[in-house]
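Morning. Coffee machine broken again, so started the prediction first thing and wrote up yesterday's gels while waiting. Chain of 618 residues, entered below exactly as on the submission form.
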Amino acid sequence: MSDPALGLLMLGLIVVVIMLGFPTAFTLMGLGMFFGFVAYYRAGEAWTDNHIFDLMVQRTYGAMTNDVLISIPLFVLMGYVMERGALVDKMFYSIQLAFRRVPASLAVATLIVCTFWGIASGLVGAVVVLMGVIAFNPMLKAGYDVKLASGVITAGGTLGILIPPSVMIIVYAAVAGQSVVKLYAAAMFPGFFLAFLYLVYVIGWALLNPKIAPKLAESETRVPVRPWIGQLQQAYSHRMLPALLTAAVAPSRAMSLTMDGARIGYGTILKNLGFALVPLILALSTLWAAWWYVVIHPQPDTPAPAAITERVQTGDASKQDPAEEKLEELGAAQSGSAQESEPETLQQMGNAELQTSNSPAYVGPAPEFYTYFAFIVAIIALLLFYYYWTMGAEQFEVLRLLTSSVMPLGILTAVVLVVILLGITTATESAAVGAAGAFLLAFQARTLDWKRTKEAVFLTAKTTSMVCWLFVGSALFSAVFAILGGQALLESWVLSLNLTPLQFMILSQAIIFILGWPLEWTEIIVIFVPIFLPMLKHFGIDPILWGVLVFVNLQAAFLSPPVAMSAFYLKGVAPKHVTLNQIFGGMMPYMAIVIICMVLMYLWPGLTLWLPNYLYGN
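Came back before lunch.
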């Protein structure tokens, strides 16, 4: 048998052996060692001198020294601490109250919590199991269709591996040699867009067929209002913001009210006023951040004219210090000999004429930006005015619940993502920030004890070791596959088909979609994605765009029978009367939505590439 044939046999065996249930990492290493031994075998050579052992050591060392993989244990620890901290119950309750008037409100709240919690944890199994325990039974008791309830949980739970920070993106970056930061930026909009498509499907189905999601009873949608809030409205105003502002200025009547048998303190008034001002603070912070990044941040740093004049006037005294002498030469345009001795770039920094003639002047953002920005500010101002004008006791209590349950986790997640995308920290450093923040949130909620902390650390070590061994096995397997000529054979076969870029894109994504049925995303990323990567350059396909399409495509790996892991996760916590076939039936429409999302991403590449191009250039 020829070497390329051995490579194809090797590729086929890995699928069969994994489907038989053998561990993926050690299967990759075992097949790599066996076929590599055959490839390197030389007659008369001692078996201990076979070069496969040298290759094994090199690939293992390469995986151990891969800096990209350092962030994986920290992000995984962040997710497990979030899960063990049990922070999701209050979040689901508050979001369900906020969307109580929306069709299929429980399903909508479940999908939003799955998306939000998936971003924070990045653990598909943990999110599906948690939401299965918290939301599945309430939806069934409310009369929701089993397929709707199971589909929302299984599909929403998979979004955590797509929306950053995601371990899958880190693994792809390490395999493809791409920037983790650019991949995070590229996957941001498609991830939220897919969640939006899920949301549109759920609400649309409920509107077309209200029987699948009956309206909740009045007792289940009633917002609990604390008694002293009603008394505060009677004392000041039925609108909560004017009432709290007046109470903060003239607190005598408010401090005569009682809560749980004790008088209201001034600190309680200020605390609730802070809750009421959260939407305004968030809106102003977002607008200021956008203005700073677009208008202020790109402005060049120029030295003050007074400082330059002072350096020129004190030239004789500054010649004694080499550092100050260099500054004098940069600022003195009339010194010809000094300019000749300095590099050209330093001459341009000190010479005003050269700076204006050769360097492009900063012109600021496009004029359209100010128009759009003013329009957005006006719209936000009108929305805030309407919100505060109509805010009563129930709206205020919902806002308070959302702020206390969602905002801490939201701030942590936003900080982790922003510091990565803006280049303030590396992915590893931001993962450390996220892990530390997860511990602080769990300790603040008083839900994390020593036992749960130990479990989170042990699970993190287990998951991290699995990923690292998987990389070692994948590196060895890929190397032997290339040595045998399997990679070159597949490339020549694909190129001989004379495919257009669109046809190659469809072929590659279709193969990955089919592989998602029997295999998990880890096997697909580390085994089969490297086969397609060398061909992307020939067809002129951006590896960032192709990679994000793969991420969206692999959502189907958790939703496609027979190895739909989300279904088995949910089945483990579902009532006995819910069958696996019902869960499979609920997941099928979301597979179609995944395909629709991929088509839209290909037709509109800006959905994927606009943010990384804007932040980091083309």
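Residues 307 and 331 are 10 Å apart (CA to CA). Going to sketch it on the whiteboard this afternoon.
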